[in-house]
């Protein structure tokens, strides 16, 4: 297996660059920082949690509405790089602003977070779509997996540094307040994101495109309408998206609900952070392994393998009682989480018409975003009805079974019928 080319390496490093945002801003540090700022402003815990939920939902809605249209416009020559640069810059700049806005201005903080979320998710649409430009179909599994693996490693470095600074501030080892230490964490995240985005900006170019037209926005609306109207021409592609909607919902829900689940069985917050860190570490090599096995046995078979493991995880969760059980559960998640996500991205990239990759990755983004809705509701409702959190996690088996059954029905041929246009590589 030959080494990665410069465009492949540069593309992979963007996963390294932006993954720190996911854990520091979305998952671990900023949510606590915002909650503290809201509490100081006299807002109740329940209300601030509601505002946090509204902010996340609003950002998701905005990106989901814009994704297909922006993706369709980006399929025209020269637009993909511009859109990627705009959204990535938006995310980096407003992440820096999180460290500057006074905590008294909690609403401004929340608005800045919404903008960073839009920047992060928007850039990812075009980043994922660039996979068709940087590598061949035969190497997509490996390259996509390497990106996710580097992302797991890259997210832990600024996270550990940030947590260390916050802990030292808490213990009065360094003369900083916890608030200032958190602001430093936001600066570290923004700089990390911006610095490691540079190779992508320098070395990755749009290879597949459609020639520009006089009015690209109006043309994009028409093209998007035609795609939706002729959805039967993309049967394999949209059947995969439907399967992806269900099983990725289960994947995201298990990860996002993990801390609440662990807390319910009596695991302390410090232990939960350690488990989260360990899961990120173990996910890196297993994601690479999934990429290699995907090349040997096919990505579809390895995605199915991951789905079966997740079904086993849900069953195991039903009987979970101790902290050791939770550790076992987390490590099992680490073995398949990145692999399923990486191979799904690569599999989808092989199905899409290359000159329309941005348009279809816009749909991919929508299905992934809205997939984050049903799972938590299913877990919450089941847990509330049964009075047992374990039963809530077990209920996710339904999503994995439906997703796996639909995936098995995805035809083995390409994502479009033979009457579709052929990709036009840039000379």
From TrEMBL:
- Using the UniProt record, give the first listed, main subcellular location: membrane
UniProt xrefs under CDD domains: MFS_YxiO_like
* PROSITE patterns in the cross-refs: MFS
TM regions (residue ranges): 12-34, 54-76, 83-101, 107-127, 148-167, 173-196, 237-261, 267-290, 302-320, 326-348, 360-379, 391-408
Keyword Transmembrane in record: yes
Protein localization: Cell membrane
What are the UniProt keywords, alphabetically? Membrane, Transmembrane, Transmembrane helix, Transport
Instruction: Specify the Major facilitator superfamily (MFS) profile domain's residue ranges.
Output: 236-427
Q: How does it sit in the membrane?
A: Multi-pass membrane protein
Q: Name one Pfam family in it.
A: ATG22
**PANTHER family under this entry?**
AUTOPHAGY-RELATED PROTEIN 22
Q: What is this protein called?
A: MFS transporter
Its source organism is: Cytobacillus mangrovibacter
């Amino acid at each position: 297996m030959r080494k990665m080319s410069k465009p492949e390496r540069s593309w992979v490093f963007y996963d390294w660059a932006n993954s720190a945002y996911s854990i520091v801003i979305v998952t671990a540090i900023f949510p606590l920082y915002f909650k503290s700022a809201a509490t100081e402003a006299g807002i109740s815990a329940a209300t601030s949690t509601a505002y946090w939920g509204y902010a996340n939902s609003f950002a998701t809605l905005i990106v989901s509405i814009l994704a297909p249209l922006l993706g369709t416009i980006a399929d025209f020559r020269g637009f993909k790089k511009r859109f990627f640069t705009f959204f990535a810059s938006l995310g980096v700049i407003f992440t820096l602003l999180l460290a500057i806005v006074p905590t008294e201005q909690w609403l401004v903080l929340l608005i800045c977070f919404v903008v960073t979320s839009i920047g992060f998710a928007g850039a990812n649409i075009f980043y994922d779509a660039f996979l068709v430009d940087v590598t061949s179909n035969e190497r997509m599994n490996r390259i996509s997996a390497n990106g996710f693996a580097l992302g797991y490693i890259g997210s832990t470095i600024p996270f550990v540094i940030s947590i260390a600074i916050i802990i030292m501030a808490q213990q009065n080892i360094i003369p900083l307040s916890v608030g200032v230490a958190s602001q430093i964490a936001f600066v570290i995240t923004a700089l990390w994101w911006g610095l490691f985005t540079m190779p992508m900006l320098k070395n990755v170019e749009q290879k597949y495109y459609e020639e520009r037209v006089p009015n690209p926005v109006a043309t994009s609306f028409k093209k998007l309408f035609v795609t939706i109207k002729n959805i039967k021409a993309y049967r394999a592609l949209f059947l995969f998206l439907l399967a992806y909607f269900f099983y990725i919902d289960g994947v995201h829900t298990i990860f996002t609900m993990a801390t609440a689940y662990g807390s319910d069985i009596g695991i302390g917050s410090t232990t939960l952070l350690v488990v989260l860190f360990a899961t990120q570490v173990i996910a890196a090599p297993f994601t690479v392994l999934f990429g290699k096995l995907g090349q040997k046995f096919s990505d579809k078979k390895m995605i199915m393998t991951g789905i079966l493991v997740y079904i086993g995880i849900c069953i195991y969760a039903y009987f979970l009682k101790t902290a050791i059980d939770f550790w076992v559960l987390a490590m099992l998640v680490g073995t398949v989480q990145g692999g399923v996500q990486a191979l799904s991205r690569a599999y989808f990239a092989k199905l899409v018409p290359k000159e329309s990759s941005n348009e279809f990755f816009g749909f991919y983004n929508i299905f992934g975003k809205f997939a984050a809705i049903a799972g938590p509701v299913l877990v919450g409702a089941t847990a509330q009805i049964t009075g047992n959190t374990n039963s809530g996690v077990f209920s996710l088996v339904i999503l994995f079974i439906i997703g796996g059954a639909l995936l098995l029905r995805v035809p083995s041929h390409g994502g479009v019928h033979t009457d579709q246009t052929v990709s036009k590589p840039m000379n």
